[in-house]
Amino acid sequence: MDQPPPPHRRTESLRERKKAQTRDALLAAGMRLFAARGFAAVTVAEIAAEADVAPRTFHRYFPDKVELLFAGDDELRETMITALDQTAVDADPVVVIRVVLAAVAKRLGDQHAELVIRERLISETPALRDRDLAKRAGMEELVAERLAVRFGVNVDYLQAQWWAGVAFATFAAGYRAWLTQGGDLGAHLESALELLEHGVRRAT
């Protein structure tokens, strides 16, 4: 018969759930205000008030409102790297990209409305565009490092960098189509990947 967790474990679990709920409330509050008034017009104090917490509580979770907007990027990066690392070392690069894109679709597929708002805010705000480009470049570099390990070469070797760039270009094409057209993110990413496969076959 299963034993209940000890009291300190139950307390820890309750604390973690409370922290997750507060973080989610701040994210939702920020996106509501950004969508209604634009990014620049919203303050941290207003986001905290909308989430019914103190401004100091906001800063326990996010250093500023920019990082709140990009909060999902850390989870996305972990999703991509986990999926990449779980594929066979000798797998074809296109197969690896397919596995990674499927994991990304599972992570983001139910967030269409929120991501449409986020992309609009980024396009309207030069500072956010710069941050977005920097974060994407960092993700691409991390993927290149993982691929370099697979290929057994230095990270600056052309093959690793090229496949990382291909992976992100494929993602960007499918992602943009999904933002514009809606529907199933996985299907859009698969369509972009099929175009890549067609190009690879023609080249070989």
UniProtKB/TrEMBL annotation:
UniProt-recorded Gene Ontology molecular function terms: DNA-binding transcription factor activity; transcription cis-regulatory region binding
Domain HTH tetR-type: 20-80
Keyword terms: DNA-binding, Transcription, Transcription regulation
Signal peptide: none
Transcription among keywords: yes
Portion annotated as DNA-binding: 43-62
Domain of life: Bacteria
InterPro entries to which the protein is assigned, alphabetical: DNA-bd_HTH_TetR-type_CS, Homeodomain-like_sf, HTH-type_TetR-like_transc_reg, HTH_TetR, MftR_C
PANTHER family with a match to the protein in the record: HTH-TYPE TRANSCRIPTIONAL REGULATOR RUTR, MYCOFACTOCIN BIOSYNTHESIS TRANSCRIPTIONAL REGULATOR MFTR-RELATED
Name recorded for this polypeptide: HTH tetR-type domain-containing protein
Organism field: Agromyces badenianii
